[in-house]
Design the sequence.
């Protein structure tokens, strides 16, 4: 079995700062939400052994605020910045960990969440996949190369407003 934690970055700051989308940081609400998401993962005893993250400022800041153990194999991939679902799945198929955290952006991250699951969670915010939305899904596979559309089961889903 393989486990995927599929997280959209926390709320970003549109009010000031860099004009470049890639460099936009989290806003105060996003910083608080990212820390809460880290606590939520910890309370469920979910700790990834590999992280695959977009290189954007808001994804890297989200990851930092999760307060995960520093020894986790972490890769920042430019290809995950605003990636479509196909790129996200292809990247996942190259993963090496047993429990992989992927942090990215909508619409690709939300589309991936919908496409990998056999059955969607009943949560009213799932299809919107708002900032900080986090899905924990299990794949009954031996290797990530076997990950495909529709072959995962949702274990947990949350959004920051639930925490």
Sequence:
């Amino acid at each position: 079995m393989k486990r995927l934690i599929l997280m959209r970055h926390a709320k970003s700051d549109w009010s000031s700062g860099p004009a470049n989308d890639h460099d936009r940081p989290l806003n105060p609400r996003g910083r608080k939400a990212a820390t809460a998401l880290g606590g939520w993962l910890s309370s469920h005893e979910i700790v990834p052994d590999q992280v695959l993250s977009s290189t954007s400022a808001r994804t890297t800041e989200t990851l930092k605020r999760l307060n995960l153990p520093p020894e986790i194999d972490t890769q920042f991939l430019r290809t995950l910045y605003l990636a479509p679902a196909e790129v996200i799945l292809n990247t996942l198929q190259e993963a090496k960990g047993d429990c992989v955290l992927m942090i990215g952006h909508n619409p690709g991250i939300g589309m991936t969440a919908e496409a990998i699951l056999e059955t969607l969670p009943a949560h009213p915010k799932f299809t919107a996949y708002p900032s900080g939305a986090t899905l924990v899904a299990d794949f009954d596979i031996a290797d990530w190369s076997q990950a495909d559309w529709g072959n995962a089961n949702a274990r947990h889903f949350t959004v920051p407003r639930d925490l």
